[in-house]
Here is the input.
Amino acid sequence: MSSVNHSNMFANLKADIPASIVVFLVAMPLCLGIALASGAPLYSGIISGIVGGIVVGSLSGSSLGVSGPAAGLAVIILTAIGDLGAFDIFLVSVILAGIIQVIMGFARAGIIGYFFPSSVIHGMLAGIGILIFLKQLPHAFGYDADLEGDQSFIQADGHNTFSELYYMLEQINPGSVVVTAISLVILILWDTKFMKNLSFTKIIPGPLVAVATGITLNNVFSGMATFNIEKEHLVNVPVPENFQEFLGNFVFPNFSGGLTNPAVYTTAIVIAVVASLETLLSLEATDQLDPMKRVSPANRELKAQGIGNIVAGFIGGIPVTQVIVRSSANVQSGGKTKASAILHGIWLLLSILLIPSLLNQIPLATLAAVLLLVGYKLAKPELFRGMFKQGWGQFLPFVVTIVAMLFSDLLKGIGLGMLVAVFVILRNNLKISYHATREHLNGKHTIRIKLSEDITFLNKASIRKALAEIEDGCSVIIDASNNHFIHYDVIEIIEDFQISAKSRDIDVEVFNLGEDVVIEPMQHFEVIDKKI
Here is the structure.
């Protein structure tokens, strides 16, 4: 693997330019679809994609993260625009959310992202991969009833992720199927070792060849009864007739109507919290995907996202976050530095200015083929096998995160995965509160219980059970030489055991529970043998 120049982000353009083109092709329909699902003007999604690429990309410390409008905020945006009554008033909330995010960055709130276990992060990546695959299959077959970028189980078209596959089979478009098949052949061929060794494949990315082929096939099929690809199966970018009309698509915030509305501030807080959480999750996941395992500064990312949302709010964009779909496409396309994210924003801007009509000739089936491979790479069978080999403590939160995401959404999936991960931690904590061994001392059967370093109230059940199961007539040594903290509830259990042991002919000794051990909330335990 070639080295990456960290001091100059434009030193790796041979890798970053092709990757940026792929990210641009993936981002364009997602920007439009998320804007449509959000009940916002179509251009607002494109504006946010441009801001996410150029503004956030320039300020971010993430080498491979790509920002733009996120599907996870679509329902929040849709509801907020309806409640506030106008899109220009909603933009005030976007600006205030950005300010809150900048404050969060300076307050070092980015540390939140470090508390998500790797099993949940891997589950999120695999879940996103499966979602991408399932959501793109209908587009691959020419059934485009659902919006691009819709990642919820219950979809905007009234169906769900799985029922959509049934309806897809009733309305297959032969032209789209052919485009998908040929695009997949090109993309898979471009990914082979033989093709990678050819010099031109390092300059011309496979997805660009697939898109060019898709445009060609669309024109060839035009007018054919069987293979004609209808307009609804193509990218649909607004086409301004002149630069003045292009500028007319920018909407500016209504401060006079927004700053006096309490609901604007509530919306801003919700957007700031959800957008920040999605960003931190995506940041952590992208770092996991990074072949060089670079660690991105989370607090700097919050500041960059905040400034991005302030800019987006001022010029008519919907909220931006770092987005795992675009970020993973960037990683898998060979991106090396944040230049690829910045360039993808530049391509978005130039494309809607210079070639919107050409963009509208791209079949959604071609872009579906690109995303199908992205989804597969995120959820490879090897990942599932690897997580299973790590044991149930890792595999269970991983699987729960995936399943919950498939049947709800990203944040709920992460939440349930975290609950299971915490449960596993608590269960393990209960199991390792002590270590018991059996031995013979002075001709008498002796059980030695060695306490762990930290004993909390969560360990009450396991210690009580262990003491209750000791046979009558034994000797018991409770060794606290490794212990630094013990909760008062556990002290009570040991004291009670000492009293009951007399009637059971059990000799009890406690060693090394001394003054350097913290006992909460008070200490009245009699130390039999203090360690000096």
The chain has three domains: 15-147+166-229+236-371, 380-431, 432-520. The chain has a mean pLDDT of 89. Strands lie at 67-69, 320-322, 434-441, 444-451, 454-455, 475-479, 485-487, 507-511, 518-520. The chain has 22 helices and nine strands.
